[in-house]
Design a protein that fits this description.
alpha+beta; Glutaredoxin; 4-stranded mixed beta sheet; globular
């Protein structure tokens, strides 16, 4: 049985879609999953990138696409009243729900649906208060240990080659994005393609030019 580490940030609509679809996508395949919250902004900073919602035309397209993807996949979804927002409280609450900082599926589901269903403000203090009461974390979500753990999770993700969310790490491979679920399924099912050098072979492609900031 293969084990998957699911790197996620509740700010990501694609992570929400992947979370909702994962059980169906991997139905019939023996596997286990652990959920590892990371700070998406930390990944972007490390790689020197802007988030999808930080580029105006891409922002609008992202919202249109994720709503269509939700519709076409039968997933309930409404955009939050404000996005992007600061997800730190949600991430820390998730980590605080487990002594090891690895929240279970129920906790992650509750947090994702808090953001991506209903169309309310995800970071509204009163809603966050009610959410914390519902999840009853076993640790102080504002404790230094929780804050340090989020940083460690993010650093571990970067060390593993994770550059965005959702990301699924299994064996020595990282699968990125909602649209990678079929590829992940094929790998877990033992598709021979993965043993034919295609995965490793892309590293031989040379970089002919590098764009530099003006």
């Amino acid at each position: 049985m293969k084990h998957i580490t699911f790197y996620l940030d509740f700010i990501s609509p694609y992570a929400y879609l992947a979370f909702e679809k994962l059980p169906e996508a991997l139905q019939g395949i023996s596997h286990s999953v652990s959920y590892k919250p990371v700070l998406f902004a930390g990944l972007l900073k490390h790689y020197g990138q802007l988030g999808p919602a930080e580029v105006a035309p891409k922002r609008d397209w992202t919202y249109r696409q994720v709503l269509w993807l939700a519709h076409s996949n039968g997933i309930e979804m409404q955009l939050p009243a404000s996005h992007p927002f600061n997800p730190l409280s949600l991430l820390r609450l998730a980590l605080a729900c487990d002594a090891r900082g690895m929240p279970n599926r129920y906790a992650c589901e509750t947090l994702f649906r808090h953001v991506w269903r209903g169309g309310a403000e995800a970071a509204d203090p009163q809603r966050l208060k009610l959410l914390a009461e519902q999840l009853a974390p076993v640790r102080d979500m504002n404790g230094e240990d929780v804050k340090a753990q989020l940083k460690t999770h993010t650093e571990q993700a970067i060390a593993q080659g994770v550059f965005g969310v959702p990301a699924f790490a299994v064996d020595d491979k990282v699968f990125w994005g909602f649209d990678a679920l079929p590829m992940l399924r094929d790998y877990l099912a033992g598709d021979a393609w993965f043993a034919q050098g295609h995965w490793e072979g892309v590293g031989a492609v040379k970089t002919a030019t590098v764009r530099r900031p003006s």
